[in-house]
Every structure is written in structure tokens, then in C-alpha cells.
Amino acid sequence: MERMEQELRASLARVVESPPTVPVLSENIIQRGRRVRRRRLAVAGAAVAAVVVAAGLFLIPTRHPVAEPARLTPRGAPTVAMTYGKSPSSAVVVWPGPERHVVSMAGTTPLATVPGGLLRVSGRDLELVPENSVRRTLVTQLNSERVAVSADGRRVVVVTFTGGGRRQLQEVDVASGRVLRSVPVGPPLVAGAEPLNPAFYSGDAVMLDTGDGVVRWEPGNDQVVGAVEGYTKAIGGGRQGALAMSKPDTCDDIGTVRTRFKHWTLCGEDFRGVSPDGASVLVLSKDLRSVTVNETGDGDVRRTLDLPAAARAIGWEDDDTFLYTTAGEPQNTVVRCVVSTGGCLTVERVGDDLPVPLPDYGS
Amino acid sequence: MSAQTDAEFREFVAGRSHALLRTSYLLVGGDWALAEDLLQAALLKTYLNWARIRDKEAVEAYVRATLATTATSWWRRRWHGERATAELPETSGPDHAAGIDDRDALWRMVRRLPPRQRAVLVLRFYEDYSEAETARTLGLSPGTVKSHTSRALASLRVALDTMGAN
């Protein structure tokens, strides 16, 4: 075999001894690259529709009955912002709207889209990146890993450093950056709670996760952050989050989840958020291969879908559709599923990026 | 993309495109026009991802990996030219190019290998990649690379033996 390998090395080297002169490639490629980038910024639909047509459409096979044919699934680019990248901090956000545009995330973390733009965290700053305009710093000296965003996207709640090791819980108006209300938080109020992360609004109250429990900041109450008994964590997702209580004796992870409407019991599943209208809950199986959509009102199962590939990221697009992304060979994909019909279609094939849909507030 | 990025990219292409074109030619099985297309596609991907490739020393490895994976995916999805077959076709009668030496005959056999086997051979015996490097580049396990290599070499040996017997 050794001789064969030597002959092969010689043969391969020999056949490329005299390549033709390479034309000037770089200018062509730079021009094409710029066109590709412009196309990603262009009005939603045109370029992506071509990709969809070229790539073909497929109906996700499912063991569960599908009420309507997949052709009723709407085509077109995602209508919520999507990050594209190998990690949030290396991603760009492709942001739909009257004109799709791209926001480079370089070292920052995207949080959500709100009426005024894209919310992101840059170091210890909370920034708003408006469409086609210069970014604005809303909050400095952030001391929370998460921020809560109101259902209309016009208010956020954050924890900030105020000096001397003191922290403050603030509600901030997104449009103006004005502090609407604030309350000092520290050991006397939240004993031993070093992490204090705003999770979500429940009406006008704000739920905060302390790492081993949940506290609530009531509207109009500028002095006390009250504990929510019986729950061990506040989990986020879309415009409404949920409270969870671990029950390790019966479930691996989350035991009971309470949304604004109902208590849920989940075993071996991940709660992935409430639809924008608050009507449905998205639950992903632990193996990432099955999605259940439940009604928040009575808990009925609206739809169960088996996914052909594991969902890496999943999020609501609107009240009736959700997007999930898969890591595939050779390309990752974005898939849209319509809850009412049970149909799913590939929306985009995106190379080696792994897109993540961003929560959309206030649209 | 900034002007600096464009300048870096131009410099890279000017310096490395000849070498990369050779690899591309071997990967596509001996078609310079197709090799240029493949190289352009790989360089375009590289340009679009330039900012994310933090270690600029790794750019060339990135391009080679993109060449190899794109070549095999082209074949699977939209190849319009020669069809690869798992088995080498039987020779039928005297080779019209019997005058050329065995090394070129070997290349003709390599061209007929399935694209992934050919990619493995190109990386292992033209680029001198180790099995581990080849596996990383193609996104395969080292064991798969080993088996592709073994099968490809065995196919070449059988084909050459058959040709010699004829």
C-alpha cells in the first residue's frame, strides 16, 4: 500500500503542475459579497423566497394527525428578528421590517426587539439600536444577566449598581431612557440573594429570579420586594414568563409551571414560552424532537409535532406560528410551523450559522 | 465590511489563490473551470465570514475545509457533470490514452472515485493532512476517514491491476 500512496502523491502533484492563470478573483468576490449582504438587508421575501423555491419545501413527517395540508403554511422570511452566528456574541441580527437590515452583534448580546429597535447588552450597558440610526445607551452599570420587558415593549426592568456595592431595581422607559421607578435592593430586602434577575412582567408586577426562589416587585410599591412562596425559579420566554417549582422526586427538572393563567406540570420537558397573545404555551421535549402546544386557558393540547431533526432554538413568531432551527448536514435550517394546521416548512437554509429567533415585543 | 477587511481579503486571495485553485481542481476531479467556480464559492463564504475568523492564520485552513465540504455537497445536490459511482466501471477494450504513464492513469482512477473518497485522498496525499486533520476538515470521524482512505486505495489498486492485466 506504501507504494500506492507514493504514486498517488506523485500523481496528484503532477496533474496540477500547470494550472491556468487565475483571474482576478478578489474584486468579483467582494462585489458578490456586498450584493449578498445587501440582499440580506433587502425587503423581506425576494431573496429568501428564491432560496425557498430553490431549496424546495418539505412537510415534516409526523406521527400525529395534521389537520391541514402544509401548503397552507405561509412562506417567506422570518418576521421576527433572527440572530445568525455560531454564538450570540458573534452573531448578526437580521431584523425584518419595512426593510430588513442587519445589526452586527460583535461582543454584545441581543435580547429582544421592541417598538423602538433592538435591545441588547453591551458589557454593562443596556442599549437600544434603532432602525437605521445610531445606538443609544439606556442603562449603564447593569448588574443583572437578564432584563424583563413589558408586554408592549415600552418598559424594561433592570438591576443596576449604584456604587458602594449597592444595587437598585429600576424600571426604565425604553423610548426616553427615563427611570420610571426604582427601589434599592440588597441584603435587607432579598436576604442572601446575590443573583437578582428580572424575568418577566406579570401584568404590571415584575417577577425576579434570585437563583433559588422568586420575588415579585409590585407596581406602586417602592419599598418592598415580596417573595413568591412555593416557586424556585422564574423562567422567561416571549412576552410572558412563568414560575417554576422543582420537584426532583417526580421530575428531573421543572415540576410545576404557572403562567398568568394556569398551573402546569411538566416532567422531562422544557417550557419555551407563551405566545404573544398569551393563548398558547410552547413545550419542547427533553430530546428536542417533539413540540407540544397547549392552550393556556384550559391546558388542552392544541398540537403535537414530531420534528425530523432536533430543535436547537425555538421561539414564537406570532400567535399561530413558531420558528425552530436545526443543525443539519450540510446546512442548518430555519423551519416555520403553523400551530393551527400542523404544517411545517423550511424557511431558510443558512450554511453553518445557527439562527436563534429573538423575542418580539410590542409589534 | 470595512476597507481594511477588504484589503486583507484581497491580499489573501492574491497570495493564495493559485495554491487553492490546485486543491480545488483535484477536488472537482479535473476541471479547471469548475475548480474556479468552486474556489469562488469557497472564497465568497470566507469573505462573508471574514470577521468571524479571528485567527487570520487559520483562513487558509478554513478555505480548504470549505472547498472540500462544498465540493462534496455540490456533488450531492446539483452536480451536472460526471456521475460518481461507488464501483469503478469495468474497462472495455484498450484505453484510448494508453500511451500515458501509470501516474496519469492513477489520476483517471481518482477522478472516478466518489467525491468524498476523492476529497479524503486529496487532503491526505496532496495536502499531507493527517487523518485527524482530514477528519476535522471534512467533519467526519477519524475512523470514517480511515475507512474512506482504505476503500479508495483498494479501489485504485484493483483498477490498476485490472488495467495491467488487460
Most extensive interface, chain pair and sizes: A-B, 36 and 41 residues
Give me the secondary-structure category of chain B. Answer: mainly alpha
Helix percentage range of chain B: over 70%
Number of strands of chain A: 28
Beta strands of chain B, count: 0
Basic shape of chain A: globular
Estimated radius of gyration of chain B: 17 Å
Termini of chain B, distance in Å? 58 Å
Low-confidence sequence ranges of chain A: 43-72, 252-256
Percent in strands of chain A: 35-45%
Mean pLDDT of chain A: 74
- Poorly predicted ranges of chain B: 76-101
The number of helical runs of chain B is: 7
- Please, what is the oligomeric state? heterodimer
Summarize the structure.
The complex is a heterodimer of chains A (363) and B (166). By secondary structure, chain A is mainly beta.
Write the layout of secondary structure elements.
The complex is a heterodimer of chains A (363) and B (166).
Chain A: H1 2-15, H2 25-41, H3 46-55, E1 82-84, E2 92-95, E3 101-104, E4 109-114, E5 117-122, E6 125-129, E7 136-139, E8 148-149, E9 155-163, E10 166-173, E11 179-185, E12 197-202, E13 205-209, E14 214-217, E15 226-228, E16 233-235, E17 242-246, E18 254-258, E19 263-265, E20 269-274, E21 280-285, E22 290-295, E23 301-306, E24 311-316, E25 321-326, E26 333-338, E27 344-349, E28 356-357
Antiparallel strand pairs in A: 1-2, 1-28, 2-3, 4-5, 5-6, 6-7, 8-9, 9-10, 10-11, 12-13, 13-14, 14-15, 16-17, 17-18, 18-19, 20-21, 21-22, 22-23, 24-25, 25-26, 26-27
Chain B: H1 3-28, H2 32-48, H3 59-78, H4 102-112, H5 115-126, H6 131-138, H7 142-165
Helix pairs in contact in B: 1-2, 1-3, 1-5, 2-3, 4-7, 5-7, 6-7
